[in-house]
Amino acid sequence: MNDTLWTAVALMLVLEGLLPFLLPRIWRDTFRRLVDFSDGQLRFIGLSSMLIGLLLIAFMRGR
């Protein structure tokens, strides 16, 4: 279980680093727009991201 968790964290860091590495200008512009979002909008994005992640995990475990 511990190895799986660390592998997931490492993969998340790799995926999070792709956009700033490949497209820094687009990443910066996107980040600037995110800063202007209200707390409610950011919470909705976070909730949506978590739900999609949980659905993907459930789907992959059910295969």
The fraction of residues in strands falls at: under 5%
The secondary-structure element order is: HHH
Poorly predicted regions are none
The residue fraction in helices comes out at over 70%
The helix-and-strand class reads: mainly alpha
User: What general outline do the C-alpha atoms trace?
Assistant: extended
Q: How would you sum up the major sheet?
A: none
- Number of beta strands: 0
Number of helices: 3
Measured on Cα atoms, how large is the radius of gyration?
A: 15 Å
Query: What is the arithmetic mean of pLDDT?
Result: 93
Distance from first to last alpha carbon = 19 Å
Tell me the quaternary state.
single chain
Q: Secondary structure elements and their pairing?
A:
Blueprint: H1 2-22, H2 24-35, H3 39-62
Notable traits:
63 residues; mainly alpha
Would you mind describing this structure in some detail?
- The chain has helices at residues 2-22, 24-35, 39-62.
- It is an all-alpha fold and 63 residues long.
- It has a domain at 23-63.
- The model has no long low-confidence stretch (mean pLDDT 93).
Give a quick rundown of the structure:
With 63 residues, this protein is mostly helical. It contains 3 helices and no strands. Helix 1 (2-22) packs across helix 2.
